[in-house]
Amino acid sequence: MxxxxxxxxxxxxxxxLLGVSILAFYVSQLLPGDPARAAAGRLATPEQLExxxxxxxxxQPIPVQYGLYIGRLLQGxxxxxxxxxxxxxxxxxxxxxxxxxxxxxxxxxxxxxxxTIGVRAATSRGGWVDRAFLGFSYLxxxxxxxxxxxxxxxxxxxWLRVLPIAGRLSLETVPPPVLTGLYTFDxxxxxxxxxxxxxxxxxxxxxxxxxxxGISEVGRIxxxxxxxxxxxxxxxxxxxxxLSERAVWLxxxxxxxMLPTTTVIGLQVAFLLGGTVLIENxxxxxxxxxxxxxxxxxxxxxxxxxxxxxxxxAYLFVNLGVDLLYTKLDPRIRYE
Amino acid sequence: xxxxxxxWNPSLLLGLAIVGLFAAMAISPGLFSSQDPAGxxxxxxxxxxxxxxxxxxxxxxxxxxxxVVYGARTTLATIVVVLGIAILVGVSIGSVSGYxxxxxxxxxxxxxDVFLAFPPLILALATNAVLGRGLxxxxxxxxxxxxxxxxxxxxxxxxxxxxLEFVESARAIGANELRIVGRHVLPNVLDPVIVRxxxxxxxVALTAASLxxxxxxxxxxxxxxxxxxxxxxxxxxxxxxxxxxPGISLFVLVIGFNLIGESLSGRMQSGLHVSRAExxxxx
Amino acid sequence: MFCSRARGTxxxxxxxxxxxxxxxxGSCAPETERSYLVILTEGIPPTLDPLAALDSRVxxxxxxxxxxxxxxxxxxxxxxxxxxxxxEVSDDGRxxxxxxxxxAVFHDGTPVRAVDVKYSIDRMLTLKTGVWAYLTPVSGAExxxxxxxxxxxxxxxxxxxxxxxxxxxxxxxxxRANEFQGDLGQRWLxxxxxxxxxxxxxxxxxxxxxxxxxxxxxxxxxxxxxxxxAVFRVIREEAARxxxxxxxxxxxxxxxxADTLEALAGEPGITVNRDPTLNQLYFAFNTRREPLxxxxxxxxxxxxxDYQGHVEHLMRGNAELPYGVLPARGECAxxxxxxxxxxxxxxxxxxxxxGVRPGEVELTMAFEGTTGETPFFEIMRAGAAxxxxxxxxxxxxxxxxxxxxxxxxxxTDMGTIWLFAPGPEAHxxxxxxxxxxxxxxxxxxxxxxxxxxxxxxxxxxxxxxxxERRCSLxxxxxxxxxxxxxxxxxxxMVGLSAQRDDLKGYSVALGHPLTQNLYPMWLE
Lengths: 336, 283, 524
Fold this sequence. Notes:
A: mainly alpha, 2 domains, C: eleven-stranded mixed beta sheet
C-alpha cells in the first residue's frame, strides 16, 4: 500500500519537474548573444568554441536542443559556470554540504526548541512561560532575518566574544577528512572531538538566526494543537483512567498534536533554502547561498539555473518525506 | 460558544494603528519629513541622531529619518502591487479551475504545482537574474511566488460553496452561471482571501526587503529599508543608527500586519466554529 | 546520556542548554600561539591564473605563488632582477634578451627554463586577456637556449620592464598536461598553482579561503624571519573583519571604508596602513550613445562630480586627486596640471549649449555595489540630477561588467572602472582606456572611444624612448582627453588596511596595489 503510494507520488512529481526544467531551459536560452560563447567563456579559443557548440548541439532545432538538455541533466551535467569555467555540478558538490549542514542544525534547533517550548506554553497556559513565548513568537516572526543576524553577530561575537563571528571552522582547525562534507559529522566519524566542537560553535549563530522564525511558528502550532488535543475525548478518558498529567500530555496529547506541527516543519524547509542565501553571506559560510548570490551579480545564468533545479528537486523530496511522516503519525490517514 | 469575539480587540487596534501610521507616511511623506530622501550632503555624513536629523545621517549624508519615511512608500507599494497581482491572478485562475473542473482544473493546478515547487526566495533570485534588477522586477518576482497560494485557496472555497443550498437553488431557478459566480460564489470566497492577504502582507514585506538587502530589489537612490540595512552594515559598530532604524521600522510594520492578520483570522475561525456548531446541531 | 532519553518536557531543553554551555565554554580556552599568518579579504580571487593578474584580487595570491622576470623592490618603484639573471636591450629597442638564473625551480621541482617564458608569452598572446592589456607592444618570444630567451616588440616600448613585473612565468609542462579542450590551462589554473614563487598553494576552497606555505627551494633564499604559512580568508563584512582583528583571530585585514580605518586608528595593538597606490577611478561615458556622443555632455557630466567631497568627506582624506589625467605619482605627471574640477555652473552651460533639456535624458550607470562603489554612483547621480539628467543604477560585479562592455549594444551609458596599473608609466593610465584597440572583447575601453589622432599619439608616446619627448606627447594626449572626455578621471586610491602591531615587514610596491607580499613579512 505504502509502496504504491510512494510510486504514485513519484510519478506525479514528473510533470512538475518537467515544468521546472522547461522554465530553466527557457531561461538558459535568454543568455545574450552566442550561447556557445557564453558557455565557453568570453576568452575561449576558437577550438574551445567549436567543441562547446558541438557538445551542446547548438546547431539543432529547439525541441531537439531541449531533449539534449534533458539528457545532459539526467547525466548530472548542469552546464559550465560562465565566470569560473568549472562545471556547475562539480561546484554544487563543493558548496552543497556546507548548506546542508547549516540546514540540518537549523532544523534540529527548530524542531527541538519549537516543540519543547510549544508544549511548555500549552501546559502552563496563561502562565509566564506562555506569555514570554507569545512575546518571543512575535519577535521571531516579525524580525527580518538579515537584521537579526547582524544583531547576534554584534552581541555574541563583538561584545561578549563567546562565539566566532563567521566561517565554518577556526583557522587553526584542519577540516576533517571528507566523508559527507558536513564538518561536524565528518569530525565525529573521524573521532576528532576538538574539530567537531569547533564546527559546532561556528554553527550556533547562523543556525540560531535561521531557526528563530521556525521556532516561533512550530511553537505556536504545537501550542494550539496541544490545547486542542487536551480538550478531546480520548484525553478525558485517559485522565479518567487516572493517568498522571505528564503521561496524558506526552503519550496522548503530544502524538496527536504532532500532525499540524509536521506540516509547519515541512514548510520551514522551503523557506530555509531561500533564507540561507541571506545568512551565508553575512556569516561568510561559503555554501549554496553564497554561490547563488555570486552567480546573480556575475549574471552567471547556468549557475543560477543549476541551483534552482537542485533546490527545487530537494524541496519536492522533502515534501514527499513530510507526507510520508504523516502516515507514521496518524494511523487514520490511509493512502490509496 | 460562551466566548464572544471582540470586534475591536486591542491587538487589532494596535496593528491598525501601526499600519495606519506607515500608510500615512507612504501617502504623504512630505507631512512627516521636510528633507530630501536623496539629497546628498557629504560634509554631514554619518552624523549622530540630533534635532536636525532625528535618526542621524547615512554614509553619503542623507537624512536617515526621511529615508525611513519615504521607504514606507516603497515597502507598502510593494505589498499592494504584489498582493494585488497575486490575488487577481490567483482568484481568476482559482475560480476558473474550481468552477469548470475537469481537465482545465487539472492543468491549472499542475501549473500552480510547478510554481509551488520552487523554494520561495530561490525563484525570486532566478527571476531577478532573468528580468534584471530593480523594484518592479522584484514585485513581479514576489507576485510570481504568491499567486498559486490564492489560486488553491479560492479553488477549494469554490468547491465548497458551489455545493451549498443557495447556489443550487439559484441554479434551479435558471440563473446564468456567470451571475451565480459574481453574485453568490465570489463574495463568499473573498472573505478568506482578505484574511489570507492580511496574514501575507508582513511576509511579502520581509521577502521584498530580503531581496533588497541582497542588492536585488529597489536600486539606489530609491529608499528601501532592506537596502538601507545592507548599506548600514559596515557602520554597525560605530554608527549604529544607519542600519538600526530601517531594521526596526521593517520589524514594527511586519508586527503590525501580523496583529491585524491574526485578529482577522481569529475572528473568522470563531465565526466558522459557530456555523459548524449550528450545522451539527441542525442535523 | 541525558540527551537520548526524553523523560519529560524539560529534558530536550536542558539538553540544548547543556550543548550551548559546552560550545560557549570552548571559546574560553587560552589562546594558543599561532605559527601562521591570517589575512582577511573582502572577496576570494576569481581565479589564480597568473595571466589574470591585471586584477589586484588575482595579483594578490599570484605575487606570492609566482615569479616574474623582473620585479619591484617591495615598497618602491625600483626594479630588480627576479627570474632573470641579466638582460640586454637591442639597439633598435625592439628585442629584450633575458638570461634566466640557473637556480630557479617551479614548485614541482622542474627548473625554470626559456621554454616556460616562451609558453607564457604565447599563452598571453593567444588569449589576449588580463595583463596583455599592458603588454600590447609584445609580438612574441624566441628561445635562444635553455636559459636564454628573447621577447620581441612591434615597436620600442619604454614601459616593458615595468609591465613585466605583472607577467608571471608559469610551468609550461604542468599547464600543458592540464589543458582542457584547448583552453591553455585556464580551467585548471583557476584553482591550482604552477609557479616558482616564494610560497606554494596548499589548499583552495572556493568562496572561503586558501592557504599558502613557504616553498623551501625558492630561488630568493630564506633568512631567519619569515612567515611559514598564511591563510587568506574571505570575510565579506567589514565590521566582522574588524571584530576578528580586534579579537586576535586575524593579523591583517583589508578595509574598504575610511570610517573603519579612522575608528581603528586609535586602538591599542593595531596599526592602520594608508598605502599610496597608482589605482585610478574612472567614469566611462559611452561615446557611441546619444547624447553622450556630444563631447559637451561628457564634459558637463565630468564637471558634475564632487571630487573634493569624495576625497575629503567620503574617504576622510584617504584618497588623492590626480594631476590632470595622471596620478600624482605617475610618470610625466606635473603639478602644473589642475586636478579634476567640480563646477556646476560651467556644466549647466555646456548642457544648455549641447541642446539637452532638463528632464529629457536618462542614463544607466554600471557600478559594483558589492565592493562599496554605491557612494560613487550616488555622488554622480546627485551631480547629474543638478543638470536635469537622471542616472539609474546597474549594480553588477566586475565579470558581468566586462562581459556587458564586450559589445556596444549591451554596454551601459556610464560605468565605473578602476585601473590597477603595474607601474608609474603614463602609458598604463592612458593606453588601455583610450586606445581604440582596447574597445570591446574584454578590453578596458568601456567608452568605446575611437579617435585616430588619439591612437597615433598613444602609439608614438609608447614608442618614444626619450623621456622628454614622451612626456610632451602625453601632454598632447592629456589635452585631447580633457577636450573629448571619454572618461572622467576622478580619484587616486589610497590602499587601506589594518594589522596587528606584531606583524612586521608589510610593504606594498606601487605597482602591486592591495597585495600582501608575504616574503618580506614576519611575526614578532
